[in-house]
Amino acid sequence: MTAPIIEVHNLTKHYGPVHALRGVSFEVQEGEVFGLLGPNGAGKTSTVEILEGLRPADGGIVSVCGLDPQSPGSSFKQEIGAVLQATALPDKLRVAEALSMFASFYKRRRDPAALLKRFGLEEKRNTFYSQLSGGQKQRLALAMSLVNDPRVLFLDEPTAGLDPQVRREIYTIIEELKKERKTILLTTHYIEEAEKLCDRVAIVDQGRVIAQGTPRELKQRSAGTTRIELRLARPESDGALRQLEGVADCHASDGAYVVHSTRVPQTIVSLVKYLEAHGNELSSLDIAAPSLEDVFLELTGRSLRD
Amino acid sequence: MRNTWTLTKVRMRLALRNRAFIFFSLIFPLTILFGVLSWLGRRNVAVVPYALALVLSITVMGSFWGLSVQLVTFREQGILRRFRVAPVGPGAMLASSILSNYFLTLPTVVIEFALARRIFHMSQWGNLGGVFFMVTLGIITFAALGLIIASVTNSTQETQVINQILWSAFLFLSGATLPLPMLPVWMQRFALFLPATYLVTGLERVMVARVSITQIGSEIVALAVSAAIAFFLSQQLFRWEPEAKVGPRAKVLATATIVPFLLLGIWENAHGSLRAAARTDFLSIERNAPAERPAPITSPRE
Hints:
The complex is a heterodimer of chains A (306) and B (302). By secondary structure, chain A is an alpha/beta fold.
């Protein structure tokens, strides 16, 4: 196995009294799409910004392409591309000017015109940045992050705040980059994004990596349980549902009950019997394999959206 | 160097797309030129080079505002941090502010010269090489002074307030609007501590007395040293992040920029000849007036 292209060992960072990172460690191999999944304030952006060289770490060891992100000179920056959590450019800068300008900063560069075409911005080449839609701005940010054909690409919440259609467009772009074997470190709080795009995921919570592995490995950590999401005509207590046969865990979420079962048929039979006995009815019932959301819930007792 | 040049070109384009910049860098100085020369130059053509030197000073001092405020806005809006992940250093960013100011101010200077000649019949060009040198040095110095203010302020609003205070002092106490010899003596003595005074008198001397630049050595040294200190400190104090606030130590460091003018002001007040030279140039207008007066304007009685 070759040396990891990104190495993070025991990374710590605090802002005044707030400990944003409390010993984060992970490694990313070349050509891998690695996701940092966690709720807002978990420490994802702090980690990425340290790796991009935007912030110094307080402790720990960090290496990207064998280089220290805080090293002086431009060698490190020649190797990376980044989509920041919030990319801002001057309002009166035209799309083509922005790409050409950023391309000119690098020794190794891609043709800006080809990038405009690839990201569907050809028709917007003479449009001012301020006149672009949110999705177009994000596509431009992605195009700008690739002008130097980077070895490592950092995408900090690349789809946050975008509507579902634009989000899918961005997923397609990232999937294309994945096929090109581009190394990508992606942060997100969208389960779907992490499951769909990432080869491996580190779940981050309160400045710590609480689990990492492939999405499949992480989901298997849910102790082989199956997720049953059900809605009832009348509310029941979580405690009562936990007593049903085969139930490992149960919690209420958005008006529904999420039940984790180790023996699905027995759980459903005992659920039906219980509801009959208590004069209640099922409104809906969905059975699914556990998601990363369930893994997070199991590990922290909280939802990613909390 | 390539990055500096790229940024210079882009920032010039951005400035030219900004109506406020066009107003303050072109329309405002030309309005002053017309105002001053229409008022004074029609009656006494000998005033034209003197008045032009004052207008040139104001034009050059405009670099103080220029693109330094734009840098603060870029920082506030999070634009600078996008540049930070690219291989662009503070030096390129700061140098592009000075260079773009320079290339955007030069055309205004040329237009002012052309108008003074064509419309107000300026009969002499002064020491053109000296004028070019002082204009170049002045733009660099004032743009660098603007950068040092930008480096110690935390918001566009704060930058504008501080710039406005200093700009008013530069404009009204340096002899740029009212000639230095016409100011009260105490004010003249105070003016000797201002960088603007050395620009104004330097330009007056090369325009009116047509002295060589070696004869305005103290003005040149003060402006050049100040520009170098301001640029160096701006680089040291440069902040990319909107939330990076400036500390008291940085503010103290920034005051080092005024040291050359403090020393020069003390020396000029004690032994210097700058005030006398300014007075000589001012009086020379009256002395030369009859000889260079244009064809008499026909009075109503005639």
